[in-house]
Design goal:
- This protein is of the alpha/beta class and 507 residues long.
- It has two domains: 7-241, 3-Layer(aba) Sandwich (Glutaconate Coenzyme A-transferase); 265-505, Glutaconate Coenzyme A-transferase, CATH 3.40.1080.10.
- The chain has eleven helices and 35 strands.
- The strands form nine sheets. Strands 20-17-16-15-21-26-32-33-34-35 form a ten-stranded mixed sheet. A seven-stranded parallel sheet has the order 4-3-2-1-8-11-14, sandwiched between helices.
- Strand 33 and strand 34 form a beta hairpin.
- Helix 4 crosses helix 5, helix 4 (107-118) packs across helix 8 (347-355) and helix 6 (275-284) crosses helix 7.
- The longest helix is centred in the N-terminal third of the chain and has 14 residues, at 33-46.
- The radius of gyration is 23 Å and the shape is globular.
- It starts with 6 loop residues before the first helix and ends in an 8-residue tail after the last strand.
Length: 507
């Protein structure tokens, strides 16, 4: 049982200045929480290890006690290269205070980078990120002034422009599964996703690093069926058992999230009639039977609930970038898992499919949009969210629908009898002259002739060659007072401007 050690013995292998790759996704999904907390405890006791670089494709945390926020200690972390920041507000605060170097790279790129590192290729070459804040001609994925090193480059191949993301060496990988045998073979029977645990492990081992795995159960050598092994023991150096390991931050174990039990969708409660439901209903009108769909975090998750409520969920193929196919994607802090999924893939493979144009349509959130068709969902004021998988998804899906309320902070509406009335207007206008950060490039979308729709509770816009065009207005809305006056810039107005269907606003 040489591989089985206690948490502190495992963490003692992490030394000053090392690069640590971390598995996990929001809400505690596949997160090695026990190891992260032990690393925090050691630093508080010894002020070691110091100056770490963190590398993780997903946002890791629950906006409270889980995730990389456990490592949000000045001195412990020097640099955080993250696919998403929104689940770890304490780490984001260190970035805003310039106490760490903060980078945001697309979730899919970091996930694919693990494959590149493992196979000793030079890095990831992709168009993902062109003309967004990831592009080195704009911000280069740097999220604060302390981030000075260029991690993204422009290259030209066959007269085409590409982004090149050089590999990042990994010294230690912190991963998780459900059961490990004494040889280090790991299964995932209670996990709600697979993510990129095997890719991280391969990358660390082939970088000359070590792999530390957290599991809930320990089994005798050779007792895990070969087809159930997700991470082979040859990749694993140390095993740490946490008997209190939870599937997510919200529940110890739910077999329906793990895909081990099927349940009728009739059990899903309908969402209340509010602005979120109106947006979800209107967005859902873009769906067609048999479509392969991605739902982003936030408001788009309501689309699956609407489909379930109206009885056609089983005619659609919802996917989530964490590798989930089928079922009903969950929202909130456990975004990234699905209720009764059909399949769970390695996250990297999901992004291969996305990047190649496999999505028929994607529904994504928006914090801001401007009249060039740009969308910001990554950074507004002091809110550091990061792009997550949004850039991979939005640039490569056949169609994109952005979803959000028209204004923010204080917005309230009364929705009944087939129309909407504004009770309290939001203090923040989301349709602006110029977005604070370009997460989605309208310029790029027009160049590749990608159809794009922007859906709010009171208006629908379309991206056309000439710019943003207002095409629909909600019943009960005054064009000048409720729409145009609540925008920083004036859109083009379709001569065929129509009223949104009344049924969207009815119980």
């Amino acid at each position: 049982m040489g591989k089985v050690v206690d948490a502190r013995s495992a963490i003692n292998h992490i030394e000053d200045g090392m690069t640590v790759a971390i598995l996990g996704s929001g809400g505690g999904i596949c997160e090695p929480t026990y190891l992260l907390k032990e690393l925090r405890s050691k630093y508080l006791e010894e002020q070691k290890p110091a100056g770490l670089t963190l590398l993780h494709a997903n946002g890791i945390g629950d906006k409270d006690t889980f995730g990389t926020d456990a490592l949000a200690l000045e001195g412990l972390v020097k640099r955080d290269i993250a696919g998403h920041w929104g689940m770890a507000p304490s780490m984001a605060e260190l970035a805003l205070e310039e106490k760490i170097e903060a980078y945001n790279l697309p979730q899919g790129v970091i996930s694919q980078m693990y494959h590149s590192i493992a196979s000793h290729k030079p890095g990831v070459i992709t168009k993902t990120g062109l003309n967004t804040f990831i592009d080195p001609r704009i911000e280069g994925g740097k999220m604060n002034a302390s981030a000075k090193e260029d991690l993204v480059k422009i290259i030209h191949l066959e007269d085409e422009e590409w982004l090149f993301y050089p590999n990042i060496g990994i010294d230690v990988a912190l991963i998780r599964g459900t059961t490990a045998d004494e040889n280090g073979n790991i299964s995932y029977e209670e996990e709600a996703a697979v993510l990129d645990g095997v890719s991280i492990a391969q990358a660390a081992r082939n970088s000359g690093g070590i792999v530390i795995a957290q599991v809930k159960y320990l089994a005798k050598a050779g007792t895990i069926p070969a087809k159930d092994v997700v991470i082979p023991g040859i990749y694993v150096d140390y095993i740490v058992v946490d008997e209190n390991q939870c599937q997510t931050c919200e529940r110890i174990y739910d077999p329906m999230l793990a895909g081990n039990v099927k349940a009728p969708m009739e059990q899903i409660s309908p969402i209340p009639l509010n602005a979120r439901k109106v947006v979800a209903r209107r967005a859902a009108k873009e769906l067609k039977e048999g479509m392969v769909i991605n739902l982003g975090v936030g408001m788009p998750s309501g689309i699956a609930a609407v489909a379930a409520e109206d009885g056609y969920l089983d005619k659609l193929n919802f996917t989530v970038e964490q590798g989930i196919i089928g079922g009903m994607p969950m929202g909130g802090v456990i975004f990234g898992v699905s209720y009764v999924p059909d399949a769970m893939l390695d996250q990297t493979l999901q992004f291969n499919f996305y990047d190649g144009g496999g999505l028929d349509i994607a529904f994504l959130g928006m914090a801001q949009m401007d009249m060039e068709g740009n969308v910001n969902s990554s950074k507004t004021g002091r809110l550091l969210s990061g792009c997550g998988g949004a850039i991979n998804i939005s640039q490569n899906a056949k169609r994109v629908v952005f979803c959000g309320t028209f204004t923010a902070k204080g917005f309230q509406a009364d929705i009944r009898d087939g129309e909407i009335k504004i009770i309290s207007e939001g203090a923040v206008k989301k349709l602006v002259e110029q977005v604070d950060q370009i997460t989605f490039s309208g310029k790029y979308a027009r160049r590749v002739n990608q159809p794009v729709l922007y859906v709010t509770e009171r208006a629908v816009f379309e991206l056309r060659e000439e710019g943003i065009v207002l095409t629909e207005i909600a019943p009960g809305m005054d064009l000048e007072k409720d729409i145009l006056s609540q925008m920083e810039a004036r859109p083009l107005i379709s001569p065929a401007l129509k009223v949104m269907d009344k049924e969207l606003f009815e119980d």
